[in-house]
Amino acid sequence: MKRAAMVIILCLAVAGCGSGINGDDIGIGRGAADPLSLLFVEHRDGDTQLYYRVGDDPAKQMTTGETDYFGDVHLSDDGSRIIFARSVDNEVGIYSMTPGDAGPTLIVYPVLLATSNRSHHSIDVVNEYDVTADGSAVVFVTTSTDGSAYSSGATEIHTIAFDGSGHQLLVDTGDEDDLVGLPQFSPDGERIAYWRLGNNDRPSGLYVMDRDGRGVRMVASSKEMNHEGFEYLSWSPDGRKIAVVNADQDALYVVNVDGGGGAEEIIRTPETEGFDYLGNPAFSPDGKWIAYHRSAMNAPGQVFTDPAQALSGSSAEIFMIPVDGGAARQVTDEGQQMEAADDPVFTPDGSTLVFVGGPMDPKTIDQQNPLKDFGIYRVAIDGSGVRKLHSGRADQFDIALRTG
Question: Which of 306, 315, 322, 366 makes a 20 to 30 Å CA pair with 278?
Protein backbone atom coordinates (compact mmCIF):
# COMPACT_ATOMS: atom_id res chain seq x y z
CA MET A 1 0.00 0.00 0.00
CA LYS A 2 2.41 2.66 -1.19
CA ARG A 3 1.04 6.14 -0.74
CA ALA A 4 2.87 9.40 -0.43
CA ALA A 5 2.44 13.16 -0.65
CA MET A 6 -0.22 13.67 2.02
CA VAL A 7 -0.56 11.96 5.36
CA ILE A 8 -3.13 13.27 7.80
CA ILE A 9 -3.73 12.42 11.42
CA LEU A 10 -6.75 13.76 13.18
CA CYS A 11 -7.05 13.99 16.92
CA LEU A 12 -10.49 15.02 18.19
CA ALA A 13 -9.65 17.03 21.25
CA VAL A 14 -10.86 19.68 23.60
CA ALA A 15 -7.94 19.30 25.98
CA GLY A 16 -5.97 16.62 24.18
CA CYS A 17 -7.08 13.14 23.16
CA GLY A 18 -8.20 10.29 25.31
CA SER A 19 -7.16 6.67 25.24
CA GLY A 20 -6.79 5.27 21.72
CA ILE A 21 -6.80 2.10 19.64
CA ASN A 22 -4.74 1.40 16.55
CA GLY A 23 -6.56 2.07 13.32
CA ASP A 24 -4.91 1.31 9.97
CA ASP A 25 -4.01 4.85 9.18
CA ILE A 26 -6.03 7.23 11.40
CA GLY A 27 -6.37 8.35 15.06
CA ILE A 28 -9.11 10.19 16.92
CA GLY A 29 -9.22 10.43 20.71
CA ARG A 30 -11.91 9.10 23.02
CA GLY A 31 -15.12 10.93 23.78
CA ALA A 32 -13.90 14.31 22.56
CA ALA A 33 -15.62 16.96 20.48
CA ASP A 34 -14.47 19.68 18.12
CA PRO A 35 -12.20 21.51 17.54
CA LEU A 36 -10.01 19.12 15.58
CA SER A 37 -6.25 18.96 15.80
CA LEU A 38 -4.88 18.06 12.37
CA LEU A 39 -1.45 16.70 11.55
CA PHE A 40 -0.88 16.32 7.85
CA VAL A 41 1.73 16.10 5.14
CA GLU A 42 0.86 18.17 2.13
CA HIS A 43 2.36 18.97 -1.24
CA ARG A 44 2.27 22.74 -1.72
CA ASP A 45 3.84 24.46 -4.70
CA GLY A 46 6.39 21.73 -5.26
CA ASP A 47 7.35 21.41 -1.58
CA THR A 48 6.23 18.53 0.65
CA GLN A 49 6.21 19.16 4.41
CA LEU A 50 4.50 18.21 7.66
CA TYR A 51 1.88 20.61 9.07
CA TYR A 52 -0.03 20.85 12.34
CA ARG A 53 -3.26 22.76 12.84
CA VAL A 54 -5.54 23.18 15.85
CA GLY A 55 -9.16 24.05 15.11
CA ASP A 56 -9.41 26.92 12.64
CA ASP A 57 -5.98 28.33 13.49
CA PRO A 58 -3.43 28.63 10.65
CA ALA A 59 -1.42 25.46 10.05
CA LYS A 60 2.08 25.39 11.52
CA GLN A 61 4.83 23.93 9.34
CA MET A 62 6.66 21.29 11.39
CA THR A 63 9.44 20.20 9.00
CA THR A 64 11.82 21.87 6.54
CA GLY A 65 14.30 20.80 3.90
CA GLU A 66 14.14 18.62 0.83
CA THR A 67 12.04 15.48 1.18
CA ASP A 68 11.55 12.73 -1.40
CA TYR A 69 8.28 11.57 0.18
CA PHE A 70 6.61 10.94 3.53
CA GLY A 71 5.19 7.69 4.85
CA ASP A 72 2.65 7.14 7.62
CA VAL A 73 2.32 9.72 10.37
CA HIS A 74 1.22 8.86 13.91
CA LEU A 75 -0.04 11.08 16.72
CA SER A 76 -0.17 9.65 20.25
CA ASP A 77 -3.57 9.44 21.87
CA ASP A 78 -2.86 12.40 24.16
CA GLY A 79 -1.55 14.52 21.28
CA SER A 80 1.91 14.90 22.83
CA ARG A 81 3.98 12.75 20.47
CA ILE A 82 4.37 12.70 16.69
CA ILE A 83 6.14 9.91 14.82
CA PHE A 84 6.55 9.80 11.06
CA ALA A 85 8.68 8.34 8.30
CA ARG A 86 10.19 10.17 5.36
CA SER A 87 12.80 9.67 2.68
CA VAL A 88 15.60 12.21 2.26
CA ASP A 89 18.12 11.67 -0.55
CA ASN A 90 16.63 8.19 -1.06
CA GLU A 91 17.37 7.19 2.55
CA VAL A 92 14.36 6.42 4.72
CA GLY A 93 14.25 7.23 8.42
CA ILE A 94 11.69 7.34 11.23
CA TYR A 95 11.44 10.58 13.20
CA SER A 96 9.84 11.71 16.44
CA MET A 97 8.86 15.12 17.81
CA THR A 98 6.28 16.94 19.88
CA PRO A 99 3.91 19.64 18.55
CA GLY A 100 6.02 22.29 20.29
CA ASP A 101 9.42 21.16 18.96
CA ALA A 102 11.39 23.28 16.52
CA GLY A 103 12.22 20.18 14.49
CA PRO A 104 12.11 16.36 14.53
CA THR A 105 14.61 13.90 15.99
CA LEU A 106 15.83 11.01 13.85
CA ILE A 107 15.30 7.79 15.84
CA VAL A 108 15.61 5.07 13.17
CA TYR A 109 18.09 5.23 10.31
CA PRO A 110 19.56 2.24 8.47
CA VAL A 111 23.19 2.88 9.46
CA LEU A 112 22.18 3.02 13.13
CA LEU A 113 20.94 -0.55 12.98
CA ALA A 114 24.09 -2.34 11.78
CA THR A 115 24.41 -5.64 13.62
CA SER A 116 26.53 -8.77 13.18
CA ASN A 117 27.82 -9.04 9.61
CA ARG A 118 24.81 -7.52 7.88
CA SER A 119 23.73 -3.94 7.35
CA HIS A 120 20.05 -2.96 7.57
CA HIS A 121 19.39 -0.65 4.70
CA SER A 122 15.71 -0.50 3.87
CA ILE A 123 12.66 0.55 5.89
CA ASP A 124 9.28 0.28 4.19
CA VAL A 125 7.68 3.54 5.29
CA VAL A 126 3.98 2.90 4.68
CA ASN A 127 2.82 -0.50 5.90
CA GLU A 128 5.99 -1.70 7.53
CA TYR A 129 5.95 0.17 10.82
CA ASP A 130 3.50 0.91 13.60
CA VAL A 131 3.33 2.91 16.83
CA THR A 132 1.78 2.18 20.21
CA ALA A 133 -1.31 4.21 21.10
CA ASP A 134 0.66 6.24 23.64
CA GLY A 135 3.47 6.90 21.17
CA SER A 136 6.07 5.32 23.44
CA ALA A 137 7.37 2.66 21.03
CA VAL A 138 7.75 1.88 17.34
CA VAL A 139 7.83 -1.51 15.63
CA PHE A 140 9.29 -1.67 12.13
CA VAL A 141 10.67 -3.95 9.44
CA THR A 142 14.07 -3.76 7.81
CA THR A 143 15.68 -5.65 4.95
CA SER A 144 19.31 -6.61 5.42
CA THR A 145 21.95 -7.46 2.82
CA ASP A 146 25.31 -9.18 2.76
CA GLY A 147 26.79 -6.24 0.90
CA SER A 148 26.02 -7.31 -2.66
CA ALA A 149 24.35 -4.64 -4.78
CA TYR A 150 21.33 -6.69 -5.79
CA SER A 151 20.78 -8.93 -2.78
CA SER A 152 17.09 -9.07 -1.87
CA GLY A 153 18.09 -9.73 1.73
CA ALA A 154 16.44 -11.17 4.83
CA THR A 155 13.73 -9.25 6.66
CA GLU A 156 13.71 -8.44 10.36
CA ILE A 157 11.33 -6.92 12.91
CA HIS A 158 12.63 -4.37 15.43
CA THR A 159 11.26 -2.15 18.18
CA ILE A 160 12.61 1.16 19.48
CA ALA A 161 11.44 3.77 21.98
CA PHE A 162 10.10 7.24 21.11
CA ASP A 163 13.44 8.83 22.10
CA GLY A 164 15.52 6.37 20.08
CA SER A 165 16.59 4.24 23.03
CA GLY A 166 15.97 0.58 23.79
CA HIS A 167 16.43 -0.83 20.29
CA GLN A 168 15.53 -4.53 20.14
CA LEU A 169 15.74 -7.04 17.32
CA LEU A 170 12.67 -9.26 17.73
CA VAL A 171 12.58 -11.39 14.56
CA ASP A 172 15.57 -12.23 12.37
CA THR A 173 14.63 -14.62 9.59
CA GLY A 174 18.20 -14.95 8.35
CA ASP A 175 16.84 -16.15 5.02
CA GLU A 176 15.80 -14.11 2.00
CA ASP A 177 13.17 -16.76 1.25
CA ASP A 178 11.60 -16.30 4.70
CA LEU A 179 9.94 -12.87 4.80
CA VAL A 180 8.06 -10.98 7.52
CA GLY A 181 6.00 -7.80 7.30
CA LEU A 182 3.08 -5.63 8.41
CA PRO A 183 3.87 -5.52 12.15
CA GLN A 184 0.95 -4.08 14.14
CA PHE A 185 0.76 -3.42 17.88
CA SER A 186 -2.30 -4.69 19.73
CA PRO A 187 -4.49 -1.94 21.24
CA ASP A 188 -2.82 -2.33 24.65
CA GLY A 189 0.65 -2.38 23.07
CA GLU A 190 1.53 -5.72 24.68
CA ARG A 191 1.47 -7.88 21.53
CA ILE A 192 2.55 -7.57 17.91
CA ALA A 193 0.84 -9.21 14.93
CA TYR A 194 2.70 -9.76 11.66
CA TRP A 195 2.59 -11.92 8.54
CA ARG A 196 5.26 -14.38 7.56
CA LEU A 197 5.94 -15.77 4.11
CA GLY A 198 7.89 -18.68 5.44
CA ASN A 199 9.58 -21.89 4.50
CA ASN A 200 9.42 -25.49 5.71
CA ASP A 201 10.82 -24.54 9.12
CA ARG A 202 8.36 -21.69 9.67
CA PRO A 203 5.07 -22.01 7.73
CA SER A 204 3.46 -18.99 6.06
CA GLY A 205 0.66 -17.31 7.96
CA LEU A 206 -0.42 -14.69 10.48
CA TYR A 207 1.66 -14.66 13.67
CA VAL A 208 1.35 -12.98 17.06
CA MET A 209 4.15 -12.47 19.58
CA ASP A 210 4.66 -10.65 22.85
CA ARG A 211 6.08 -7.15 22.73
CA ASP A 212 9.52 -8.47 23.72
CA GLY A 213 9.55 -11.04 20.89
CA ARG A 214 8.67 -14.04 23.04
CA GLY A 215 5.61 -16.26 22.83
CA VAL A 216 5.57 -16.44 19.01
CA ARG A 217 2.65 -18.43 17.63
CA MET A 218 0.80 -18.74 14.34
CA VAL A 219 -2.90 -17.82 14.70
CA ALA A 220 -3.92 -18.50 11.08
CA SER A 221 -2.16 -20.25 8.22
CA SER A 222 -1.95 -18.88 4.71
CA LYS A 223 -3.83 -21.96 3.52
CA GLU A 224 -6.84 -20.86 5.55
CA MET A 225 -6.84 -17.56 3.65
CA ASN A 226 -6.00 -19.03 0.25
CA HIS A 227 -2.98 -16.80 -0.20
CA GLU A 228 0.65 -16.61 0.90
CA GLY A 229 0.71 -12.88 1.74
CA PHE A 230 -1.48 -10.21 3.30
CA GLU A 231 -2.04 -6.56 2.40
CA TYR A 232 -3.77 -5.16 5.52
CA LEU A 233 -3.99 -6.07 9.22
CA SER A 234 -6.21 -4.45 11.85
CA TRP A 235 -6.78 -5.40 15.51
CA SER A 236 -10.21 -5.33 17.14
CA PRO A 237 -10.59 -2.95 20.10
CA ASP A 238 -10.54 -5.80 22.64
CA GLY A 239 -7.46 -7.41 21.06
CA ARG A 240 -9.24 -10.71 20.44
CA LYS A 241 -9.63 -10.54 16.66
CA ILE A 242 -7.61 -9.35 13.68
CA ALA A 243 -9.08 -8.33 10.32
CA VAL A 244 -6.93 -9.41 7.39
CA VAL A 245 -7.09 -8.61 3.67
CA ASN A 246 -5.14 -11.00 1.47
CA ALA A 247 -2.48 -9.84 -0.98
CA ASP A 248 -4.85 -10.09 -3.93
CA GLN A 249 -7.14 -7.65 -2.06
CA ASP A 250 -10.19 -9.68 -2.99
CA ALA A 251 -11.15 -11.18 0.40
CA LEU A 252 -11.56 -10.02 4.00
CA TYR A 253 -10.99 -12.47 6.85
CA VAL A 254 -11.43 -12.25 10.62
CA VAL A 255 -8.95 -14.21 12.71
CA ASN A 256 -9.64 -15.23 16.32
CA VAL A 257 -6.39 -14.50 18.12
CA ASP A 258 -7.34 -16.41 21.26
CA GLY A 259 -9.21 -19.67 21.55
CA GLY A 260 -7.22 -21.61 19.00
CA GLY A 261 -7.06 -19.05 16.22
CA GLY A 262 -8.50 -19.76 12.79
CA ALA A 263 -9.67 -17.49 9.98
CA GLU A 264 -13.23 -16.90 8.77
CA GLU A 265 -13.89 -15.37 5.35
CA ILE A 266 -16.29 -12.44 5.80
CA ILE A 267 -16.57 -11.17 2.23
CA ARG A 268 -15.04 -11.86 -1.17
CA THR A 269 -15.28 -9.66 -4.24
CA PRO A 270 -16.88 -11.23 -7.31
CA GLU A 271 -14.80 -12.54 -10.18
CA THR A 272 -15.39 -10.06 -12.98
CA GLU A 273 -13.51 -8.78 -15.99
CA GLY A 274 -12.98 -5.50 -14.17
CA PHE A 275 -10.64 -4.58 -11.32
CA ASP A 276 -12.35 -5.01 -7.95
CA TYR A 277 -10.49 -4.91 -4.65
CA LEU A 278 -10.98 -4.00 -1.00
CA GLY A 279 -8.75 -2.82 1.81
CA ASN A 280 -8.13 -0.68 4.91
CA PRO A 281 -10.35 -2.65 7.33
CA ALA A 282 -11.18 -0.81 10.57
CA PHE A 283 -13.19 -2.12 13.53
CA SER A 284 -15.98 -0.10 15.12
CA PRO A 285 -15.37 0.87 18.78
CA ASP A 286 -17.79 -1.83 19.98
CA GLY A 287 -16.08 -4.44 17.78
CA LYS A 288 -19.31 -5.39 15.99
CA TRP A 289 -18.61 -3.85 12.56
CA ILE A 290 -15.71 -3.57 10.13
CA ALA A 291 -15.49 -0.61 7.77
CA TYR A 292 -13.46 -0.97 4.59
CA HIS A 293 -13.01 0.67 1.21
CA ARG A 294 -13.83 -1.07 -2.04
CA SER A 295 -12.58 -0.03 -5.46
CA ALA A 296 -13.84 -1.26 -8.78
CA MET A 297 -13.30 -0.63 -12.45
CA ASN A 298 -15.80 -2.74 -14.32
CA ALA A 299 -15.46 -3.91 -17.88
CA PRO A 300 -17.17 -1.80 -20.59
CA GLY A 301 -20.93 -2.24 -20.46
CA GLN A 302 -20.73 -4.22 -17.24
CA VAL A 303 -22.74 -2.48 -14.52
CA PHE A 304 -23.67 -3.78 -11.08
CA THR A 305 -26.56 -2.11 -9.27
CA ASP A 306 -26.12 -4.09 -6.05
CA PRO A 307 -23.40 -2.45 -3.92
CA ALA A 308 -22.73 -5.77 -2.22
CA GLN A 309 -21.66 -7.17 -5.59
CA ALA A 310 -19.66 -4.36 -7.17
CA LEU A 311 -19.59 -0.68 -7.92
CA SER A 312 -20.73 0.68 -11.26
CA GLY A 313 -18.14 2.36 -13.42
CA SER A 314 -14.83 3.35 -11.83
CA SER A 315 -15.20 4.15 -8.17
CA ALA A 316 -14.01 3.64 -4.62
CA GLU A 317 -16.50 3.67 -1.79
CA ILE A 318 -16.77 2.97 1.93
CA PHE A 319 -18.67 -0.10 3.17
CA MET A 320 -19.46 -1.67 6.54
CA ILE A 321 -20.01 -5.34 7.31
CA PRO A 322 -20.86 -7.18 10.56
CA VAL A 323 -17.76 -8.74 12.10
CA ASP A 324 -19.48 -12.14 12.08
CA GLY A 325 -20.39 -11.82 8.40
CA GLY A 326 -23.62 -10.91 6.69
CA ALA A 327 -24.84 -8.24 4.32
CA ALA A 328 -22.48 -5.35 3.58
CA ARG A 329 -23.78 -1.80 3.96
CA GLN A 330 -22.60 0.91 1.56
CA VAL A 331 -21.87 4.18 3.38
CA THR A 332 -20.64 6.52 0.65
CA ASP A 333 -21.89 6.72 -2.93
CA GLU A 334 -21.59 8.75 -6.11
CA GLY A 335 -24.73 10.68 -5.20
CA GLN A 336 -22.60 12.44 -2.59
CA GLN A 337 -20.12 13.43 -5.32
CA MET A 338 -17.74 11.00 -3.64
CA GLU A 339 -16.47 8.83 -6.47
CA ALA A 340 -13.30 8.04 -4.49
CA ALA A 341 -13.33 7.29 -0.76
CA ASP A 342 -10.59 5.51 1.20
CA ASP A 343 -9.04 4.89 4.63
CA PRO A 344 -12.22 4.73 6.76
CA VAL A 345 -11.96 4.87 10.56
CA PHE A 346 -14.75 5.10 13.11
CA THR A 347 -14.97 8.06 15.46
CA PRO A 348 -14.93 7.11 19.16
CA ASP A 349 -18.71 6.92 19.64
CA GLY A 350 -19.10 4.74 16.52
CA SER A 351 -21.73 7.00 14.95
CA THR A 352 -19.56 8.45 12.18
CA LEU A 353 -16.61 7.58 9.98
CA VAL A 354 -13.68 9.77 8.99
CA PHE A 355 -12.17 9.07 5.58
CA VAL A 356 -10.25 10.52 2.69
CA GLY A 357 -12.17 11.19 -0.51
CA GLY A 358 -13.24 13.43 -3.33
CA PRO A 359 -14.81 13.62 -6.77
CA MET A 360 -13.32 11.65 -9.64
CA ASP A 361 -15.80 12.35 -12.43
CA PRO A 362 -13.68 12.53 -15.62
CA LYS A 363 -16.09 15.14 -17.00
CA THR A 364 -15.47 17.61 -14.19
CA ILE A 365 -12.10 16.97 -12.54
CA ASP A 366 -8.97 18.97 -13.31
CA GLN A 367 -6.96 16.61 -15.51
CA GLN A 368 -3.71 18.37 -14.59
CA ASN A 369 -4.35 18.02 -10.85
CA PRO A 370 -7.09 15.39 -10.41
CA LEU A 371 -6.77 15.23 -6.62
CA LYS A 372 -6.94 18.94 -5.88
CA ASP A 373 -10.55 18.64 -4.63
CA PHE A 374 -9.78 15.71 -2.34
CA GLY A 375 -9.96 16.17 1.39
CA ILE A 376 -10.77 14.67 4.77
CA TYR A 377 -14.47 13.99 5.36
CA ARG A 378 -16.78 12.78 8.10
CA VAL A 379 -20.01 10.88 7.39
CA ALA A 380 -22.67 9.22 9.55
CA ILE A 381 -22.66 5.42 9.35
CA ASP A 382 -26.04 5.57 7.58
CA GLY A 383 -24.43 7.67 4.82
CA SER A 384 -25.98 11.00 5.82
CA GLY A 385 -24.39 14.27 6.86
CA VAL A 386 -21.22 14.21 4.76
CA ARG A 387 -18.98 17.06 5.97
CA LYS A 388 -15.59 18.15 4.72
CA LEU A 389 -13.06 18.61 7.52
CA HIS A 390 -9.98 19.60 5.55
CA SER A 391 -9.13 20.58 2.00
CA GLY A 392 -5.64 19.86 0.74
CA ARG A 393 -3.66 20.17 -2.46
CA ALA A 394 -1.75 16.94 -2.82
CA ASP A 395 -0.95 14.15 -5.22
CA GLN A 396 -2.18 11.51 -2.77
CA PHE A 397 -3.58 11.31 0.76
CA ASP A 398 -3.02 9.08 3.72
CA ILE A 399 -4.52 9.29 7.19
CA ALA A 400 -3.69 7.99 10.63
CA LEU A 401 -6.35 8.00 13.29
CA ARG A 402 -6.71 6.38 16.68
CA THR A 403 -10.21 5.38 17.69
CA GLY A 404 -11.66 4.53 21.01
Answer: 366
Residues whose CB falls within 8 Å of the CB of residue 25, separated by 6 or more in sequence, listed in order: 7, 72, 280, 343, 345, 398, 399, 400, 401
Q: Is residue 341 part of a domain?
A: yes
CA angle 155, 156, 160 (to 5 degrees): 145
Torsion angles phi and psi, residue 121, rounded to 5:
-120, -10
Sheet with 398-403, side-by-side order of all strands: 21-26, 398-403, 7-12, 36-44, 47-54, 60-61
1 in any annotated domain: no
- Is 2 a member of any domain? no
The total domain count for the chain is: 1
Parent domain of 316:
7-403
- Please tell me the distance from the alpha carbon of residue 89 to that of residue 68, in angstroms, as a whole number: 7
**At 65, which CATH number?**
2.120.10.30
Residue 196 lies in a domain: yes
Q: Do 9 and 345 form a contact (C-beta atoms < 8 A)?
A: no
pLDDT in tens, 256-294: 998 666 788 888 876 654 557 888 899 999 999 999 988
Q: How far apart are CA 386 and CA 365, in angstroms?
A: 20
Where do the H-state alpha helices sit in 250-321? none
* 155, 142 contact by CB (below 8 A): yes
pTM of the predicted model as reported, rounded to 2 decimal places: 0.80
Q: What is the pLDDT of residues 164-196, one digit of tens each?
A: 899 898 988 777 667 888 999 999 999 999 988
How far, rounded to the nearest angstrom, does the alpha carbon of residue 261 sit from its chain's CA centroid?
Answer: 23
